[in-house]
Design a protein that fits this description.
The chain is mainly beta and 142 residues long. It has helices at residues 17-24, 29-32, and strands at 4-5, 40-44, 48-54, 64-68, 71-78, 97-104, 115-119, 122-128.
Amino acid sequence: MKLVRYNHLDPQIPASFSGMLDRLFSESMSAALKQFTPAVDIAEDEKSYSLHLAVPGVKKSDFKISLVDGKLTVSGERKMEEKREGKTYHGLETQYGSFSRSFFLPEDVLTDQIEASYENGILILNLPKREKKLAKAIIEVK
């Protein structure tokens, strides 16, 4: 079974072009700008799965990782520095605000042994697998 990203319909993204225009001119658009989706790399080897979330500038204490009914959810918030004295921003492409990513875990993940570490702006989740049991039997010919 593959590790699959939880794919829900994002209520922040309009379903049609007219819906996008309506949101563009409404006040609720500012709330949508306060959220972002970090990039995720998913890898697998013989012993484990690993998730790498790109979230530079977030403190370890700002992450919340939960596992409910086989769905792993990573959420948090990246806060913007408020020190703007004497600065005029001509462009601001860095994403700030809250984020949340969810993944349904395969059945072979040892959920009680999941580990998380954060270094150089990458949150790394290590999801160890159960050992595969080889079904081996000797059948006698009669």
